[in-house]
């Protein structure tokens, strides 16, 4: 009872925080597949946008839906991005975007694509952190240039974006901060992986890890994936995705070095249950197309993540607060269908 009361007090304190004049901090609900709901234009048109931590430009499908908006300001030039396995291009505009009672004026990309062409979503909300992203533009209205993120699990929906602050009621312990490298999105140095000390893949100083909420699974070089899962003959290597009995990693401790820190990879970050075959699992680290590590939603579910542009760009990590009966080692945590 004391713990519940303490969490309630912490949550109320966070909600009641005092913001400098002219700024606002607020929460946005985060749904499956890291999706937010927003109203764009005047009058507002509803859009379901996938949150993309690598994207530097917010964009929408079916731009004709804003034809009657009185607040749309066309801009010169074009934009280019990448989503759902394809290059996204189109025109540019400046438009009003609303989350509940809070409105932002931000640049967006305008495309003629349909939702069916990009994973049944209406576009992407760019949290890449550059001046052209939603983060870069909207953060001028926040008391701090920071976004806290807890993405939903199958037993913990919806998730949340804390815009302009971090909420201690959403995580346990302290945030551990990692310095961000220059480049697209939020990336830190990647120093390698070790599994129970006897399977290692070292990548000192030449590779990075980038947070990628656009992708469900994580991806890494072949030697890293091999170090994680080993050479158990029961592993089936289907192209880049590996399937295996769920006991393959029993007794194995896997650690990853990010931003100079070594941290434990939980079971939920490493595998998820195969919905078609009882007792079988799917590896949450697939073999990637480059020499870097892409940390997808299966990794992000096991952390509360803070993306900060305060005093230099950095990423803060802490374990999220899970509901009773759910832990970061529950392979059923990954339910994104």
Automatic annotation (TrEMBL):
Alphabetical list of Pfam families matching this protein: Asp
Domain called Peptidase A1: residue spans: 34-318
Domain of life: Eukaryota
Keywords: Signal
GO BP: proteolysis
Gene3D superfamilies the record matches: Acid Proteases (2.40.70.10)
Keyword Nuclease assigned: no
InterPro entries (UniProt xref): Aspartic_peptidase_A1, PEPTIDASE_A1, Peptidase_aspartic_dom_sf
GO MF: aspartic-type endopeptidase activity
Secretion signal span: 1-16
Family membership: Belongs to the peptidase A1 family.
PANTHER family the UniProt entry points to: BETA-SITE APP-CLEAVING ENZYME, ISOFORM A-RELATED, PEPTIDASE A1 DOMAIN-CONTAINING PROTEIN
Name used for this protein in its record: Peptidase A1 domain-containing protein
Organism: Cutaneotrichosporon spelunceum
